[in-house]
Amino acid sequence: MNRRSFITYSVGAFAFGLPSLSRAQNNTFLGYAELRSLPGQYMQLLSRFSFRDPQGLLWSVPKGYKSDGASIPRAVWALAGGPWAGSYKDAAIIHDYYCDTMSRSWEATHKVFHHGMLARGVDPVEAKIKYEIVDLLGPRWDSTHRWTGKYGKKRLRGATGISFSFDPSKRIARSIASSRQEAWELEVARDVEARIRSEGAANFSSESYAPPTIFDYDVALTEAQQSVDQYATINDRGQVLMPTEQMLQFQTNLSNPALNEIGTLRTPNM
Fold it and tell me: pLDDT for 72-120, tens place per residue?
């Protein structure tokens, strides 16, 4: 073998081995998230934290970022524990940041949550369940609007869709509507989990999934306000008082999603 042939062979061998080396560096976190607990459910990142996805794209979260795990629907918390207690903590931080900044598409942001869980060793079926629930119920956005979940109503970026009021009856109506929404989300999440476990992770997709019910927050808020206006009284300290029977009915409905009709419409089986 002459010198030229040796050089060609050596360079070719190195180049041949490079892709496998590159793949080995993808789908991995660069270090571990160092977090400091803050009042409420917030956590603050103490140093820059990154994840490189399977395509080699880097997802980085800056030092000092404060996360409350809000990009992960509460239904996932109910099934798997809060984002700071579970093995999906690091993936949740990446997901939270990019849901806040909306600097990449919601589809890619949800997918990186899935990749991150797998990279941290979350069981593939459990990771699939969490991913599909987030994909179905989590934040979505485009260049001008933001909305929540597959069935959410689009609102302009920066708009909350919530009108603040000092009226205590309006506050309790919002609280009832939000509680109804959480109950609906938990019902859907449990249905998704059951279907994935029975049908197999590879056979389920949130985009083709039809939930047992759909939820409309605006309708729920209107109906809750009507109930409060009908049954509630306000004392001299501005507290809203509901009859015991009515409050027990609210609590029963919240603990039994099958009875949770406010803001929901039954959908046909598909």
Answer: 888 888 887 777 777 789 999 999 999 999 999 999 999 999 999 999 9
Task: Judge whether 179 and 188 are in contact, CB under 8 Å.
Answer: no
pLDDT, residue 102, reads 96
For 53-94, give the secondary structure using H, E and C.
CCCCCEEEECCCCEECCCCCCHHHHHHHCCCCCCCCHHHHHH
- Cα(189)–Cα(134) distance, integer angstroms: 9
End-to-end Cα distance, the chain: 68
Encode burial over 220-249: b for 16+ CB neighbours within 10 A, e otherwise. Answer: bbebbbebbeebbeeeeeeebebeeeeeee
CA distances for 162 relative to 171, 174, 178, 262, angstroms:
11, 9, 11, 18
Q: What is the DSSP secondary structure assignment for residue 158, as one 8-state letter?
A: T
Contacts of 186 by beta carbon, 8 Å cutoff, 6+ apart: 74, 75, 78, 79, 257
Lowest mean pLDDT among 81-85, 125-129, 240-244, 249-253: 249-253
Parallel, antiparallel, or unpaired: how do β-strands 49-52 and 264-266 relate? unpaired
- Listed by start position, the domains of the chain span 28-155, 168-266
Alpha-carbon distance of 110 to 72, in angstroms, equals 10
Q: Which two tokens stand for residue 154?
A: 């689009």
pLDDT at residue 247 above 70?
no
